[in-house]
């Protein structure tokens, strides 16, 4: 009995039926393979060719745009009226418009010194600039650090104001709007907004404000962003 194989235990009728089913499945597959698989493969080839053509057209278009920009693009200071502000011996710093700097913050423990320091180091007459730190922080420790940083710069003669509010209605936009309601803002002619992690170059205002002052049709100047890692 130990020599009986598994094949002996399976009746021949079942074995034959199993072979017939496998044969039928194979026959069905042979019948549907050509009309089913071939069209799918052809469709995939057409899709790949179409995508390749689209990529080629995109590269060609971008190449043409780059060439046209290189040939005909003019720098902003040549497309618009632009002239640097200079101190006048007769009127002094009055030639410079008064600019309000707004810096909205919210628990900016890591970067608050960067933006405040950069704003305070802007090359602009100190009596023609107002720096407004709008602190919506919910962490008392962060609030204290930001306020002390503002006091430190104020002790150096910088016109910087630390401002908080009772609620965070409107979030960042609400803080900016609330800051514009202050009485000391009424004499400011232009507003510059820096996020809490911005670090504008010292000559930012000297480069940007002339576009607004000398071109009445311009209402907004957007500077280029560059990302960096600061310790």
From TrEMBL:
Bilayer-crossing regions: 43-69
Location of the protein in the cell: Golgi apparatus membrane
Record-given protein name: Glycosyltransferase 2-like domain-containing protein
GO molecular function: mannan synthase activity
InterPro entries: Glyco_trans_2-like, Nucleotide-diphossugar_trans
Topology in the lipid bilayer: Multi-pass membrane protein
Gene Ontology annotations of biological process type: cell wall organization
Transcription recorded as keyword: no
SUPFAM superfamilies: Nucleotide-diphospho-sugar transferases
Pfam families: Glycos_transf_2
CC terms in the record's Gene Ontology section: Golgi membrane
Main localization of the protein described in the UniProt heading: Golgi
Signal peptide location: none
Glycosyltransferase 2-like domain boundaries: 103-228
Keywords: Cell wall biogenesis/degradation, Glycosyltransferase, Golgi apparatus, Membrane, Transferase, Transmembrane, Transmembrane helix
